[in-house]
Amino acid sequence: MSMIHAEVPDVLLQQAQVLVQRGWANNVQELVTESLRRYIESHQEALTEQFIHDDIAWGLNGDD
Q1: Rounded to an integer, what distance in angstroms lies between the CA atom of residue 62 and that of residue 42?
Q2: Mean pLDDT in runs of 10 for the chain (64 residues)?
Q3: Are 17 and 32 in contact (CB under 8 A)?
Q4: What's the CA gap between 18 and 20, in Å, rounded?
Q5: Local structure of residue 23 (DSSP, 8 states)
Q6: How many CB atoms sit inside 10 A of residue 19's CB?
Q7: Residues 34, 25 contacting (CB under 8 angstroms)
Q8: Is the dihedral of CA 21, 23, 26, 27 positive or negative?
Q9: What is the Cα–Cα distance from 29 to 19, expressed in whole angstroms?
Q10: Largest CA distance in the chain
Q11: Rg of the chain, C-alpha, whole Å
């Protein structure tokens, strides 16, 4: 597993810690990992569509 370093607002970290204390996740790392996974899954279609549009524009116009 890879490691990342991120700065988050204090309020956001406090909210994450409350969720852990209430049993929604085992620890903040698990909460962040699951949150990132859900964010990526929910935006995957939009990202794929944007890549397709970018490829088409590049193919038609040759612009980088």
Answers
A1: 31
A2: 93 97 97 94 81 86 68
A3: no
A4: 5
A5: T
A6: 14
A7: yes
A8: negative
A9: 12
A10: 54
A11: 18
The Cα–Cα gap between 42 and 39 comes to: 5
Residues 24 and 46: their CA atoms lie apart, in Å, by 28
Q: How far apart are CA 41 and CA 34, in angstroms?
A: 11
**Does pTM surpass 0.85?**
no
The confidence score (pLDDT) of residue 20 equals 98
- Those residues whose C-beta lies under 8 Å from the C-beta of residue 13, and which sit 6 or more positions away, are 28
How far is CA 34 from each of CA 3, 11, 24, 49, 57, rounded to the nearest angstrom? 14, 19, 11, 24, 34
Question: Which two three-digit tokens encode residue 61?
Answer: 């116009």
**Could you count the other beta carbons within 10 Å of the beta carbon of residue 29?**
13
Q: Residue 16's closest CA among 38, 1, 34?
A: 34
